[in-house]
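Look over both lines before class:
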Amino acid sequence: MNFPRRRQPQLTVATVAPSEHRTTEPVLRELIHRYGTVTRWEASVWKYVINGAKHVSPLIELHGDLDETVKSVKTFCLRVRREEGAGEYRSIVGVIISAKPDLDMAVNLEPTAFGLVQTMITVGRMPFISVSMESPRYGRAYITSISLDTERPEELKVKQEPLSTLDG
């Protein structure tokens, strides 16, 4: 008995060069902006060797509270490192590593900016932060800008009305 042969489906494989579907810059999602107040800080120094070259990496951890929640989280931990060399991407300044239990952020700063942050916290002027970032997805996101100030940003300052005098 001869059975008819089943026709095999034809498989075609599309080949795409890596440069055609990847860009050098990450594609950013919608950005959100939050303000925060630093309540405490910690510092450490990490020394290591890569390919025979010695590196020293100081780290400052700033802990505090955000004025508005991000994915139901109101506390943050911002890790600030001194940058060595150029960053990988020009459009981002840092990353959100995880969103729970704290909003865990990491930012690399140039040596002069890192020194200024170090000075602000050691003289007791706890900085306020202002951060623009993507809304975290699966606990991760890019930070596009960050500002560390010794005074609360203008948008949040409570404008005091002059006291009215009673005529009497």
Observations:
- Residues 66 and 115 are 24 Å apart (CA to CA).
- The radius of gyration is 25 Å.
